[in-house]
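User: Hey, quick favor. My workstation is busy. Could you predict this chain's structure for me?
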Amino acid sequence: MATLDTKGRESAYLARVIEQWGRKTLTIDVGTSNRRCRSEADSSDERVAAPAELLREIAAGAREEVKELLRSGAIDAAVGVAGGKGSAVFGEVVSDLPYGFPKLLVSSARPALLAELALHHDIILYPTLIDLFGINAFTERVLDNAGRAIAAMRYVPARERRKKTVAITAFGVTTPAANRCVARLAEAGVDAVVFPANGAGGRKMEQLVSAGEFDAVIDLTTTELADELVGGTASAGPDRLKAASHRMIPQLIAPGAVDMVNFGPPSSVPAEFKGRQFYSHTPFTTLMRTTASENERIGTLTAERLSQAKAPALVLWPAKGVSDYDRDGGIFRNPEADRAWFDAVRQNLPPSIVARELDCHINDPEFADAAASWIVERLTPGGSSRADV
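Assistant: No problem, here it is.
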């Protein structure tokens, strides 16, 4: 896939490399030359908006074409050669391809755009760091590598699942709980897939839950809601904590890492947060402790989204801390701020959903055992269907 009006030579070169390695190619042109936006009109405002509208139309058309090619079995990998606009179009076009379908993007786009694509798709990104202006000694190296790489990739549809599968969210500061949940589920013959609660991970989990890939969710680490409300860098967007309710599958919710909001290096923290409590998790990650008022808002949002659940749902509250940094003697320990989350959840949940308190830390074994046991009971034939059991 390429804008042949600007990347025609690069596209042709890449196709030759792929074919030299024994694969057939089909080129889709997503360029704008000699095309006119169907909705383009005569008013000056609409003429200004037309290029963006045209790109959307091209992406929509190519997206349907690619979906049809997939249905017919004509393609088993996708590669794009693009600058900024072409990269955005590539992201739209491949968005309906299955998770694990090889998607490689060779791009000279700005890093921020590529980072945004990585939030939404499992695209393999190959930033060129040089502009793509024809074929030369440098672009040859890039395209040779990309061609050999994509030629070696082939989509194999997922096998039918033989076991129940549970999605789990985790962060570094809730890893012990996630590990024990995985182990307890395995003992019960249930598979687990763990998603990092870093924005991209939560977003992808919601998408895959919506696609019917999971039988239940242990949403152990809902820290992405803190970033969504407070303005951190790890927000998973407005659809977080919705898919399990829509799919009507069991879900267990915990406040893992809601004691923190994520930013980049210290210099990236907005000035409005000056004077707050921070911790440098790594040179590239700065964590900010949430306040009681923020946790109240996060708890309210959690309850509002969870209230849509029609299948069994349970909130588990660890009274002794929600992250490794939020324990007795820990740098983020603040029981009052934590309690604001739990109080808001209980006040806003419908009576059909129970919020249960456990006198332990989120990373204590008994917390993970309780979470895993509750989910296993609801996945077992004849198991309880009541949330309060």
